Amino acid sequence: MQVVLFDMPLNEEDARKIAYNVIRSELGSIPYPGKPELKDGIWIVPIIVRYPRILSIGDVPEKVRFMNFENVGEIKIDANKGELLYRPRYYEVNNIIKENLEKVRITVEMALVKVGANRFAQLPFPAHIHSPVVDILSWLLINDKIDMAKDLSLIGVDDKGKYVQNINLLESTGLIRKSENLILPSNNLIEIETRYQTLPEKLSSSLAFFFEKGYTFIDSIKQVLGPHLTITGFCYEKSLEYGDLIPISYETIDRIVADVYRQEVKRIKLPRYLIQLETVGLLEEKIMSGKVVWSGTEEIFRKIQGEEEILQPVRRFFA
Amino acid sequence: MKRQIITNDGRKVQILRVPYYYQSESDWLCFVFSLKMCLDYFKNIYQSDFIRSNTPNKSVDELKHLTHTGQFMGTRVDDSLVNELSREIPSIKFSLDEKCSINTLLDNFNKNLPAIVLYNCSYMLYEEEGPGHAGVIIGILDDNDLILHNPWLGPEVLVKWKDFQKGWELEYNKVVIMKPETQTKLEV
């Protein structure tokens, strides 16, 4: 039984207090109650989230920013009885916060892929990375065409679906075209083939083109770029939140890779990834107070900031 | 248990030797880190041998689990949590007090006890309401200005009393009080 210790009918302050107690005991410390509104004898109190993001220079805390996720639910209280009528479930609010954070991450990755396309395309791609995009482009560059009926029969049913999906993505960027059962180079790929001499150059340039034009297909791009995109996405996202390039410690990047991949083998490769990213000009190594830290490059950061169309949906989250 | 520091505006103050841990990338763990700082103080620094011997070493992960702290949502700090903490860490009696004043904080400090204050850091910094935050009071100056370990922003942070009050009031002046239990509980 709910014990009510307020005068009836409830005033705004008391409604806020009830909502505050519900939030703190049922949801957590991150959400907070907004301004209550009285409607038909019911106090409706919005639940608001301004999500904290701690920004550090290396390992030293510098400032905290708050991302505006605004209303994530509401609490309803009977104004005459003081009874709680409705509150959202923990997982509902948790999922909204999680989705908003994911949206920001994906959006920053898209902008980064678009502006850094040429540099990402220069990264070496290990043979074991399952990447239909690289396979399809490589096949066309060497074998000139793909016979869907014959050549795709070489792969299993599960993988075939992924290849077909990626064929459609490449077609939408104008790199390939379909002609009945055949996949052929389209104008953009032909132009790239004409411009460059060696196969590695042609592959790298066609990938850069795909990244630049197809940045919205971020899931497929992530299959190619994987940890490189995870690491750079994190570094540039932090810098966007901070409003300027911010150096990040190796330990922090290591934690992120561990959280995302949960595979020790990926963590062992972290130094290699960082060196590769520095080689292609996506990250820079610096020394701060005798410690090695990593940050994005000025050029890429300014270009990301300029991608207004891509970043517009999440601009409001950056306070 | 205390040492002297000089604040960034040149004032000398005695503070409790509470160890500081920076919250780093986990944006939702301020209460857990505040609790860790206090428990390590009781474990390693506090004056009573009995309390030092009987306070357990708890890692951040163990405290996350103990406090049921959720990713993205933070900690649900209520009477139920403090009761559970008291059960799991019997050397300390935890309580969650509301409508506290500076006298509560002074009382604790004078007994060499840190206190975890729940306040609205965003409102204190930017005059805009935000998430609830936890910090550890380790020092109090003559004019009630506070020295706080802020898991977000660093150790020994000087906070003006008038600024702190603004953020504290939004969280209804709540404090998690920790009182050492020096008597062994009788178990039947």
* Overall domain count of chain B: 1
Assembly state of the chains shown: heterodimer
Low-confidence stretches of chain A: none
Any idea what the CATH architecture of chain B is?
Alpha-Beta Complex
- Residue share in helices of chain A? 40-55%
Q: So what's the overall shape of chain B?
A: globular
List the total number of helices of chain B. Answer: 7
Shape of chain A: elongated
* N-to-C CA distance of chain B: 36 Å
Overall mean pLDDT of chain A stands at 87
Number of helices of chain A: 13
CATH class of chain B: Alpha Beta
> Rg of chain A to the nearest angstrom?
25 Å
* Biggest sheet record of chain B: 6 strands, antiparallel
Q: Which H/E pattern describes the elements of chain A?
A: HEEEEEHHHEHEEHHHEHHHEEHH
The CATH superfamily of chain B bears the name Cysteine proteinases
Strand content of chain B: 25-35%
Strand content of chain A: 15-25%
Account of the 3D structure:
The complex is a heterodimer of chains A (319) and B (188). In chain A, the strands form three sheets. In chain A, strands 1, 2, 3, 4 and 5 form a five-stranded antiparallel β-sheet that branches. In chain A, strands 6-8-7 form a three-stranded antiparallel β-sheet. In chain A, strands 9-11-10 form a three-stranded antiparallel β-sheet. With 319 residues, chain A is of the alpha+beta class. Chain A is elongated, with a radius of gyration of 25 Å. In chain A, strand 4 (60-78) and strand 5 (84-86) form a beta hairpin. In chain A, helix 2 (90-115) crosses helix 8 and helix 2 (90-115) packs antiparallel against helix 13. In chain A, 52% of the residues lie in helices and 21% in strands. Chain A folds into two domains: 1-49 and 69-88, Nuclear Transport Factor 2, Chain: A (Roll); 114-315, no CATH class. Chain A contains 13 helices and eleven strands. Chain B has one domain (2-180): Cathepsin B, Chain A. In chain B, the strands form two sheets. A six-stranded antiparallel β-sheet of chain B has the order 3-8-4-5-6-7, with helices on both faces. Chain B has a two-stranded antiparallel ribbon with strand order 1-2. Chain B is built from seven helices and eight strands. By secondary structure, chain B is of the alpha+beta class. Helix content of chain B is 34%, strand content 25%. The longest helix of chain B is centred in the first third of the chain and has 15 residues, at 30-44. Classes of the chains: A alpha+beta (319), B alpha+beta (188). At the A-B interface, helix 1, strand 3, strand 4, helix 2 and helix 9 of A face helix 6 of B.
